[in-house]
């Protein structure tokens, strides 16, 4: 049986400002159970995809971005079978990073520096090159812009039940009125609850769910046709239109940029 990723490395055993690790999930269980640590954690997907649950939201780690989880925040994750992830663990107060979970744009420079830091031991000397690299990495990271690739689910049991059901079956096209009957509320009351708890209308919230699911599935190797069908779209074009409105590009363009970055990285390593 594969081991759990949380047993591989305890970031809180070192007091260094930042330490990095890389994991290939072909060797570990896809489900990472709910856990917490003192250090904050940045999660990058080098290949494949990972979906995190933290702070009453579902977070997707898309290409060119990372999910930042502050220290002390309970979180869990699910990685695709082909996922290769990079983790950066940051000592509290070591950098000007958000006090809540955020999706951050990640420059190629930061990716390279985290990759380099992952080759260092966790107790590197305080006056070493690794220590200076960690400091520069944190300075650069604090300047990265925020993105929004998350799905708010709130702590409300009715919203969480809807999120669980639609995450399991994202093709469910039930109307808000039909969902209101399932959770024993009036349609108007559920509409108000949705906006109050998530900041989104039901339609926008479900579209964001579809974006989260599609990014995860496309990154794991699924075709656009298969993802469109899984999400219940009447046509591939309808799915592509939704994706373009949400990200500013088609799925092909979005992932072409990722492949270009991977090719560039491999070329630099050679």
TrEMBL record:
The keyword DNA-binding applies. SUPFAM superfamilies: Homeodomain-like, RmlC-like cupins. Pfam families: AraC_binding, HTH_18. Keywords: DNA-binding, Transcription, Transcription regulation. Residues 160-257 form the HTH araC/xylS-type domain. Coiled coil: none annotated. The keyword DNA-binding applies. CDD domains: cupin_NimR-like_N. This is Helix-turn-helix transcriptional regulator. It comes from Mesorhizobium retamae.
């Amino acid at each position: 049986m594969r081991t759990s990723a949380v047993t591989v490395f305890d970031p809180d055993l070192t007091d260094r400002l930042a330490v990095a690790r890389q994991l290939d999930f072909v060797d570990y269980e896809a489900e990472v159970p709910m856990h917490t640590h003192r250090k904050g954690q940045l999660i990058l997907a080098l290949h494949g995809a990972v979906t995190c649950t933290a702070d009453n939201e579902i977070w997707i780690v898309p290409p060119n971005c990372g999910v930042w989880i502050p220290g002390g925040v309970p979180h869990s994750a699910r990685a695709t079978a082909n996922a290769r992830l990079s983790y950066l663990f940051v000592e509290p107060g070591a950098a000007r990073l958000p006090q809540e979970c955020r999706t951050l744009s990640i420059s190629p420079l930061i990716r390279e520096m985290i990759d380099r830091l992952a080759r260092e031991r966790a107790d590197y000397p305080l006056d070493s090159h690794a220590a200076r690299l960690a400091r520069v990495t944190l300075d650069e990271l604090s300047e990265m812009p925020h993105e929004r690739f998350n799905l708010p689910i709130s702590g409300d049991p009715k919203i969480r039940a809807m999120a669980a059901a639609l995450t399991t079956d994202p093709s469910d096209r039930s109307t808000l009125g039909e969902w209101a009957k399932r959770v024993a509320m009036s349609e108007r009351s559920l509409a108000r609850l949705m906006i109050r708890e998530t900041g989104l209308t039901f339609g926008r919230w479900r579209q964001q769910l579809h974006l989260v699911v599609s990014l995860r599935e496309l990154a794991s190797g699924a075709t656009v046709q298969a993802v469109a069908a899984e999400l219940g779209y009447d046509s591939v074009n309808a799915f592509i239109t939704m994706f373009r409105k949400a990200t500013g590009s088609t799925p092909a363009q979005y992932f072409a940029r990722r492949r270009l970055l991977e090719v560039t990285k491999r070329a630099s390593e050679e």
